[in-house]
Amino acid sequence: MASDEIPAVAAAPEASSSAAPVAQDSNDSQNNGDRRENRNGKRGGRGRDRGNDKPGAQGKRKHGGFGSAKGPVPDKREQVRNNRDAKRRKVIDEEVGGKSFMSIEFTPDEIKAEDRRPKRKVAVLIGYAGTGYHGIQINHKDKTIEGDIFAAFVAAGAISKANADDPKKSSLVRCARTDKGVHAAGNVLSLKLIVEDEDIVEKINSHLPEQIRIWGIQRTVNAFSCYQSCDSRWYEYLMPSYSLLPPQPQSFLGKKITESAMEKGVLGEHLERLDDVKGFWEEVEKNDIEPILAKLGPEVKAEVLRKLQDSNDKELAEDGQTAKKDQDDVSKDETADKDVEMPDVAQGQPEKPTEEAKPAEDVPKEPKPEKELSPVDAAVRDIKAAYVAAKRRYRISPARIERLQQALNLYLGTHNYHNYTVMKSFKDASAKRHIKSFEANTTPIQIGDTEWLSLKVHGQSFMMHQIRKMVAMAVMVVRCGAPLDLIKESYGPRRISIPKAPGLGLMLERPMFTEYNKRAAGFDKEPIDFSKYEDQITKFKDEHIYRRMFEVEEKENSFHLFFNQVDNFRTDYFLWVTAGGVDASHERSDRTERVPKALEAELGDEADGVVEDGT
Prior knowledge:
Blueprint: H1 26-38, H2 76-96, H3 108-113, E1 120-128, H4 145-155, E2 173-174, E3 183-193, H5 200-206, E4 212-219, E5 232-240, H6 252-264, H7 267-273, H8 280-294, H9 298-315, H10 375-393, H11 398-409, E6 413-416, E7 432-440, E8 445-447, E9 450-459, H12 466-479, H13 485-489, E10 506-512, H14 514-520, H15 534-556, H16 558-568, H17 597-603
Parallel strand pairs: 3-10
Antiparallel strand pairs: 1-3, 1-4, 2-3, 5-9, 5-10, 6-7, 7-9, 8-9
Helix pairs in contact: 4-5, 8-10, 9-10, 11-12
């Protein structure tokens, strides 16, 4: 933003033609000059040149004050506004070619014709399915949840046309930031809105797609910030129960786990921790894979086995990108609990949500003609499909859920989570976070062929990737039969590379405002509470959030791909799950050390320019 200084305006000439001439003795002029020189320019002389005797300041003109013949005084507020608008237009033109998702422009006549109505500070309770959106936070270039909501506010008359070109004018703040593809059953925005109409919620919803809903709007105290007033947040993470199956014995990680257990003399103890899944993979090989291989000739069979191995190598080469990024990329960073204040450069949104809001997977596509496969490629396809189908048939035992719960219990309390985020050192005080509860539902739900587990975590605040890395750490320890104390060890100074579980399963359940609600009655304000909308929220989750999660997993095999990549990557980054513990794994020298490109997505180090926002 430009400086608030009032610019210098041309001073009047020494002798104005409109003023009476003033006689001045040449000696007086000389004396004044001597007086200035004797003071070494520290105070300057008297009169209009006072203070202009610093080097480079001679002849500098000043504004002459109110009502002088030297020009009108500029309106400081108007000047600041004009500078801000000019800067905004420049950014829009340079960065997005003149079209911004953060600025809804109206003509001066349209703005003038609109009636002025009072704005009130409010909390807006919202829910959304993040599929097809680049997160919640409004910005110039990308389609966002806030962008569509802001446009709906303007279309419904909750934000005036005069303020439609800049969300900062309405003091927009979000309670928790969610990123690309991540859902929220409950989130809160705080801002100033025009809320005189009794049906304002219905009006706003009429301008939104079905996957974004306004649950309610509540008046708050004028100083309310939904981020600052939020005490804690609830998140839910859904994952297929097959995520807890051990690595396949022939995978890189599976072999290393067995070798390490034998070398350390703890094979019996290790197998005991995996007793409830003993023989699972052997049965899959016997009942599902061998019948496919038995139909092949010796040469084709050998080529199929080679190609299966090569496909893993190709996808997981250290110097290359993964052949297919799994749905983990739907959230490039953790839902970060930060109300990023709107930047000085206003950013905008088209007046109404565009067709781009429609999720890609909801748009009908022309079916591609199937390519005829060779016998080798057909067999490889059938074997991969057989492995996925076998995983989906798996039904988790109560003992395995109990072991997962034991792992989750180790997160309770305050710990140092520097290993569960990016760009944080052990000594960074902000890496310490408090977890109030972390529960695994003991009753899995079955959707189609797949059984799903629900995990719910309640914490004060979370850092980038923290929840997804907490889930991955607990799952890795359980599925690999590792000691649970590894989780405790991760809080220490040693750097451990923890993968981040797919973002597909993550959902912000709701933020909590316990302390604010205690004081709200004293200000004659309602508490901020989602429970009054529980029936609507439950229906919305079933129809728009859970359904999308299940459909994407069914189509993309997201969790299968994620664990397949982790299990088959030939690196020592994840060998902390073996009997050798953290000493057997690669320790990154510092937080700036680059990792193999194929691991960037799993570790959360992909170069996407996203910075940690949690506090």
